[in-house]
Amino acid sequence: MIPPSRRRPRWSTLLLLAAIAAGAWSLAETGVGSASLLAGREGAAQMIGGLLPPDLDPELLSRLGPAALQTVQISIASLVIGAVIGLPLAMLIAGNTEAPRWLSGLARLVATAFRSVHELLWALIFVATVGLGPAAGVYAIGVHSAGVIAKLCSEQLEAVDPAPVEAMRITGGSRVTCALLGVMPQARANIASQLLYQWECNIRSSVVVGFVGGGGIGEALGIALRLFRYQELATLLCAVLLIVAAVDQVSRLIRARVGATTSTNAISGTRRRSLLTLGRRTS
Amino acid sequence: MSTAKAAMRIELRDVHVTLADRPVLTTVSLSFREGEQVAVLGPSGAGKTTLLRVIVGAVVPQRGAVLLDGIDPHSSRAALTRLRRSIGCVRQRDDLVRGLTARTNILASVAYQWRPRDWGSVLLGNVPRRYRDRLAEIAQSYEIDEVLAAPVERLSGGQRQRVAVARAVFGNPRLLLADESTAGLDPVRAARALDDLQYGGATLIATTHDLRIAQRFPRVIALREGAVVFDGEFAGPADLRRIYGEAVGTEMQTAIGTESGTEPVA
Predict the structure, then answer these.
(1) For chain B, N or C: smaller number of CB within 10 Å?
(2) Which of A161, A170, A278 sits opposite B56 (nearest CB)?
């Protein structure tokens, strides 16, 4: 027979209750509920009515093409900047490349700073410094994605099989040799996949960043919204949907080609590591 | 270019290693002459791999001294690196870098010699001019010509093993370490892999748990629970008790005695 439970409530139960309470409290305090939705119904109806039919004015359509192209250019340019800054940071941050501790600490700090400030905030900063236009958008997204790339790619680097790297080291390979010829090639496919995913994120960001003057289709969207030109807005929204969907498809196709391995590789990598790092290591 | 530089001489004096509070090597004193070929025999956990790791300086003994060519590898970082560069290493897992071709894996063993131009050349998938003859020679003797351009993950296990040996000997090492490099190979391929290791007069130390492999070497060192229990030429069943201890050794001796052949079974 199971004795009647006289234990105190478990930690997990307490945590769950606390989470529910926090959720309910926050929803109530921010005014979420049927009242606010009801209050907004007229505005919503007006807006949806205003969206239709989408504006197919030839003048707008002729502006649409270049703006869409600029959005794609912003996403690619910011990916280039993000990769050029982010990949070296990732190499320094990853523990298995054995960069000097002060340097990897500094790289980690820089990456965290880049990543924790939102693209929109970066865009406001760059618009204020370099002025309105696509360049500000590229810098903003580039800096933020450099931070993201540094973090995600350093994790990919750390997940590689450590045995071949150690074999290089114990036969006299330098730190640079081990990093470039031992760690990097093993992570290459996964890093390529990571960069493509970042490209998808950048295209979405470039629309948002355009709102605050970062160029591209986002800028046109922001103007249409502020001037209450809802039919124009509808056309632009459709264009954004098409661009994002197209980029996702292209990225998926390329990723299938580079043949990135999934996380199973990473798991077996860490298991092996535990067998090999027994004992005092000198290098 | 195939002539090896003078082989390495190694001396271990009263080496004691404890890993995770467990003694792995206890007062091991051994010396290896230049060009000597030695098998280190013992069951798993006997300390064979640790012995090799002590020699390459990857494990620092708590007590005792290691001297390679009379030099303490831990005297300076430069000394350690210089000694390591004259060591070739083959382990049971081939340790090749996935994502690189067989050729680049082999060339990477001498990356410390590269000039910036060589880096560019190798990263673009080419072979620097001064390595071409050497690579052709090695590829021919290990029969890997056809797989040089292939990424290593596409090769068969046997091909990978040969590429790993080719990589280990490419830079004319003065010491070759083989850690269970024949484990998992059938007897014919194991014999072939051993022959591959007899390279250019370098000192060779090969660990194995298989007596049939070990007895092909002129000198066998047997380790049991971190201590050297046998050191010399394997002369026959009479040595089994020293290598494996009274109980197991006697059992094996009896087993061999009842068989018609003289081939000891490990």
Answers:
(1) N
(2) A170
In CATH, what number does A70-272 get? 1.10.3720.10
> B50 CB near a chain A CB, below 8 Å?
yes
Asked if the Cβ–Cβ distance from B87 to A182 is below 8 Å, we say no
Q: Is B98's CB within 8 Å of A164's CB?
A: yes
Q: Which residues of A touch B78 (CB under 8 A)?
A: none
Residue B128 lies in a domain: no
Q: Is B150 helix (H, G, I), strand (E, B) or coil?
A: coil
Whether the bond between B264 and the residue before it is cis, its omega within 30 degrees of 0, is no
- Interface predicted TM-score of the whole assembly (ipTM), two decimals: 0.83
Residues B151-207 have pLDDT tens digits of 998 998 888 888 999 999 998 899 999 998 887 777 777 888 888 887 778 899 999
List chain A pLDDT tens, one digit each, 283 residues: 555 555 666 888 899 999 999 999 999 888 887 888 888 888 888 778 877 787 777 777 788 888 888 999 999 999 999 999 999 999 999 988 888 899 999 999 999 999 999 999 999 999 899 988 889 999 999 999 999 999 999 999 999 999 999 999 999 888 889 999 999 999 998 999 999 999 989 998 998 888 888 788 888 888 888 888 888 888 888 888 998 899 888 888 888 887 654 433 333 333 333 333 333 333 3
Q: What CATH number does residue B42 fall under?
A: 3.40.50.300
What CA–CA distance (Å, rounded) separates A123 from A126?
A: 5
User: With contacts defined as CB-CB under 8 Å, which chain B residues touch A171?
Assistant: 56, 84-85, 87-89, 109, 168
Residues in chain B within 8 Å Cβ distance of A282: 57-60, 74, 80
- The answer to whether A174 and B111 have CB atoms below 8 angstroms apart is yes
For residue B92, tell me if it sits in a domain: yes
Confirm whether B138 is domain-assigned.
no
Which residue among B60, B104, B108 sits closest to A280, beta carbon to beta carbon?
B60
Q: Which residues contact B227 (CB under 8 A, 6 or more apart)?
A: B25, B26, B27, B28
Q: Is residue B203 part of a domain?
A: yes
What confidence tens digit (pLDDT) does each residue in A69-82 have?
899 999 999 999 99
Q: Measured between beta carbons, which residues in chain A are less than 8 angstroms from residue B108?
A: 168, 173, 177, 181-182
- Give the count of domains, chain B: 1
Query: Across the beta sheet with B87-91, what order do the strands follow?
Result: B87-91, B175-179, B203-208, B37-41, B219-224, B227-232
Say yes or no for a CB contact (<8 Å) between A174 and B89: no
